[in-house]
Amino acid sequence: SAQSVVTIMHLVVERFSQQQSRLHLHTEDKLPLVSVSSSLIQQAIFNVVDNALRYSPADKSVTISVKSLDTDNKHPQVSIEVQDQGIGIRADQSDSIFELFYSVDAFKRNDSGTGLGLAVSKGIIAAHQGTIQSVPVEQGCLIRICLPACRETLAHGKGGNVS
Length: 163
Ligand code: ATP
Ligand code: MG
Known about the structure:
This is histidine kinase. This protein is an alpha+beta fold and 163 residues long. The protein contains four helices and seven strands, in the order βαββαββαββα.
């Protein structure tokens, strides 16, 4: 059903009890709704934020930005970007991290996970006709999720100015 990404993001942030102070959420004022399963999308984004917190220093913040992408007005999208200030992901591993049980060697430590999180996220996002990718950045890791938005709600948010 039609959901607000802002509401979803607040629910995700709430799940990180002690780490919440490291999370900085930025949302645009007028965002279109998305037609999704709220609980599944929450889980998909949770996995990405969990990584950002886990694979970057405890004294560094994680920035989450939610934006509207309506380049051609025919395929409105909402993007959710999670940016950390950790060691980042090498370009040659940017696809592999979304595979089942994949873990970058440098992180094979006691606190590294099972390598399931991003594979689950990718499956959930794909099931919603969205995309998830690691975007090359100078510092840290940037994961971008794009979800198709509901057209009608975009038209409403823009004052109904859609032919
Ligand atoms: P799980 O999420 O199942 O507990 P995991 O975190 O190891 O385990 P994924 O979330 O799928 O698995 O991530 C896969 C691998 O990608 C991680 O093990 C890590 O090596 C790398 N990775 C993911 N996110 C980041 C990040 N923000 N910075 C650096 N490396 C990352
Ligand atoms: Mg993980």
